[in-house]
Amino acid sequence: MSKNPAFLFYPNDWNRDMEEYPLEIQGAWIVLLCKLWWSETRGEATKSLSEWARILREKNKKTKEILEFFQKKNISNIIFLDNQSSNQNITIISRRMVKDNRISELRRQVGKLGGNPGLLKIKENSENLVNQTNNQNNQSPVPVPITVTNKEINKEKYGEFENVFLSDDEIKKLEEKHGEHGKTDRIEKLSSYIASKGKKYKSHYATILTWDRKNNPTPTVVPKKQQTVEDMYSND
Predict the structure, then answer these.
(1) Per residue in 55-66, is it b (16+ CB within 10 Å) or e — as a string?
(2) What pLDDT digit, counting tens, does each position of 201-234 carry?
(3) Where are the alpha helices (DSSP H) in the chain?
(4) Domain assignment of residue 54, yes or no
(5) Which of 47, 63, 94 finishes a domain?
(6) Which of 3, 76, 81, 172 is deepest in the core (most CB within 10 A)?
(7) What's the whole-model pTM score?
(8) What sign does the dihedral 115-118-122-128 (CA atoms) show?
(9) Nearest Cα residue to 56 out of 27, 79, 82
(10) Residue 82: inside a domain, yes or no?
(11) Do 7 and 33 form a contact (C-beta atoms < 8 A)?
(12) Residue 185 and residue 4: Cα distance in Å, rounded?
């Protein structure tokens, strides 16, 4: 990836999102933005807790408190990995930087093709329409059944990048189980992960459930032995 000397800064967004927080939080976020800009995956980086602490020049405990604050206030997407480790790996994602980089990359690719992506798309669709019309004129019309999938009917786009598809029923279940904040937090994490990694999942709802099980494993419950009649009177 080419290394640009500067990244975009949005004063209005900064004042809206950060003005109520102390300078400690504002300064930490600026430092992290610089590191995310130079990351191999622009806008996203995964490092151990001690590595993030060295970047912020803070102790591990204080660094974790700062990152947990970012997560709680939804300043950025913070994914805590290896929860059992004292020096766990932590992924930090700047949603704005990932989005800007994606747009910049798209423009760069379109520039190589020598045209506006919208115009290229219109040209392609026009050619397909002409070919389709010619084929229809040469053939007898045959009725074709139209099939609408459940996904098209029931699932809506969610998340910062509008790439998480969930049905009304799935949204309701997430909200009942985790509350409004917990539901939104899980959707945003998945949205940023898909945008940064280009991952594809058959079911986004199932993916969220799988992540929950990994991060919060259910403790093993030993079944209680059923009491028999002999047991009831064995101490008499």
Answers:
(1) bbebebeebbeb
(2) 888 888 888 888 888 766 555 555 555 545 554 5
(3) 11-18, 23-37, 49-56, 60-72, 95-113, 117-137, 150-154, 168-197, 204-215, 229-232
(4) yes
(5) 94
(6) 76
(7) 0.47
(8) positive
(9) 27
(10) yes
(11) yes
(12) 31
Total domains, the chain? 2
Q: Are 80 and 90 in contact (CB under 8 A)?
A: yes
- The C-alpha atoms of residue 164 and residue 194 are separated, in whole angstroms, by 8
Instruction: Measure the CA angle with vertex 184, ends 64 and 160; round to 5°.
Output: 95
User: Structure tokens of 166?
Assistant: 């969930």
Q: What percent of the chain has pLDDT over 70?
A: 71
**Amino acid present at 207:** T
Here the contacts of 18-22 (C-beta below 8 Å, separation 24 or greater) are 18/75, 21/73
Q: How high is the pLDDT of residue 151?
A: 45
Mean pLDDT in the chain? 77
Q: What is the pLDDT of residues 56-100, one digit of tens each?
A: 999 999 999 999 999 999 889 999 987 777 888 999 999 988 888
Residue 234 lies in a domain: no
Give the range of the structural domain holding residue 45, as residue numbers without chain letter: 11-94
DSSP secondary structure string for all residues of 43-102? TEEEEEHHHHHHHHTS-HHHHHHHHHHHHHTTSSEEEE--TT-TT-EEEEE-HHHHHHHH
Coil vs helix vs strand at 125: helix
Pick from 59, 77, 94: which residue ends a domain?
A: 94
Cα separation, 150 vs 164, in Å, equals 15
pLDDT at residue 158 above 70?
yes
Q: What is the rounded distance in angstroms from the CA atom of residue 56 to the CA atom of residue 29?
A: 9
